[in-house]
Amino acid sequence: MKTTKFLTALFSLFFTFTASANFAEPQQNIKVATPQKVEPVVSLQGQNQPPLHLSETDLKNNPTLTQQLLTQAIYAREPQLIEKLLAIYKTFPENDRLLVQFAEAKHAALSGELSQAIRVYREMLAERADLNPVRIELAIALFQDKQNTAATEQFQKALSDPATPAPVQQLINAYLEALQERDSWQISASAYYVRDTNVNNTGDSRNIEQTGYVKNDDMMPQTAHGIAYNFSLGKDFNLGNSYYLAFENELFGKSYWDNHDYDDIYNRTSLGLRYKTAQSTLSLMPFYEKRWYGGESYQWANGARLELNHWLNPNWQLSTAAEHSKQRYFDNQAQNGNTKLVSATLVWARTPRQFFYLGGDFNRETTQVKQYGSDTKSLRLGWGQEWGKGISSRLGFGFSQRHYKDEAVLGGLIALGKVRKDRIFNVNLTLWKRDWHVFGITPKLQFSYRKQKSNIPTLYSYDRQNLNLIFEKSF
């Protein structure tokens, strides 16, 4: 019952005090009283009534009044008064632990101790993810601490709560607009151990279809152990109003210490223009990318990507993209050509603790030799959830069909008698605990499964599953 009453008061006072730039006054003005003969802790001023001075003894004899005054002091943003009332309130044997945590976090935030405030807010949300006012306070603290990506995520989650009143939505949108205008570097990195029992993605049969040819050992599934990693950074430089010069760089790689022939590194650098509002981001990003395989230059490409991310309302977001690139291969000019991609993803943020997405992609690769060209159609869907006790999960499914353009010929010599067609299934599950951080690094447990079924199964059908512990950090 106490927690329920506290939550009710929390919502009521949060929406009263936080929804405007000039915080509304409570019905009774609270202030630190000047010393008297019996030194009061607070003085209450009613309309057309003399002030009422309350001493520490008065408050200790009235727990209900002390709790009400502490709750009002939190949203009156009076750190000295919060500190005094909290010290008294904590002496009560039946105090509300959530209110104590919230008061401690608010006092820390008002005192400039943002790291402590963020830690306490996260602990509260790990226990009760439905505390939307706490989530908003966390987002504000993250905003003040210049943790832009994390602040944006928390504001968007809070905005998706249907119980959020219009004035508070306006406040959140104001913060989101301010975040859009910031131009600090956005950096993220992750790494994890990889054990791959089929690093060359091939079928496990020795025979090559019905051709009479047999695979040598190098064409059989290869095992490799190593490290997978990615690193990304970007920055938006404001050109005036809502226009930005945008820079991004994405690096992905796998390095195998016992099979360097399959080391794989990919890097894309983009520089373009971006237009941003609180609800939409439109980007035109020319790019250059290069891939190294087995320690040698393998392929490069340049092109441009057009993206639009738009929040249809606080709960629905539509992301679309179109991309065109020219591809060139260093050792196999037969694969030179171009690619065209269109993509769309619809996200439903049902509550601050839950979201779903549905997406589709179409990719066309045109090559000099038709057998290497293909059309790929993909469908993606997923579910994200914040559970009790601080646990979060992400579950994603993917299905793709890839149809090639001409009859397959292996190595330019062995005719396989078919036009290659593949069906690809993907499942990814990621679990982590929201309040587990070591030097800002979040450990995440990820299970992934991929199955490819081809009409040329001895060469191209395989399945692979991995369980990885990922270490991830955003700056």
From TrEMBL:
<keyword id="KW-0732">Signal</keyword>
<keyword id="KW-0472">Membrane</keyword>
<dbReference type="InterPro" id="IPR007655">
    <property type="entry name" value="Slam_C"/>
</dbReference>
<dbReference type="GO" id="GO:0009279">
    <property type="term" value="C:cell outer membrane"/>
</dbReference>
<feature type="domain" description="Surface lipoprotein assembly modifier C-terminal">
    <location>
        <begin position="185"/>
        <end position="475"/>
    </location>
</feature>
<dbReference type="Pfam" id="PF04575">
    <property type="entry name" value="SlipAM"/>
</dbReference>
<feature type="domain" description="Surface lipoprotein assembly modifier N-terminal TPR repeats region">
    <location>
        <begin position="53"/>
        <end position="155"/>
    </location>
</feature>
<dbReference type="InterPro" id="IPR011990">
    <property type="entry name" value="TPR-like_helical_dom_sf"/>
</dbReference>
<keyword id="KW-0812">Transmembrane</keyword>
<comment type="similarity">
    <text>Belongs to the Slam family.</text>
</comment>
<dbReference type="InterPro" id="IPR057556">
    <property type="entry name" value="TPR_Slam"/>
</dbReference>
<keyword id="KW-0998">Cell outer membrane</keyword>
<dbReference type="Pfam" id="PF24575">
    <property type="entry name" value="TPR_Slam"/>
</dbReference>
<keyword id="KW-1134">Transmembrane beta strand</keyword>
<feature type="signal peptide">
    <location>
        <begin position="1"/>
        <end position="21"/>
    </location>
</feature>
<protein>
    <recommendedName>
        <fullName>DUF560 domain-containing protein</fullName>
    </recommendedName>
</protein>
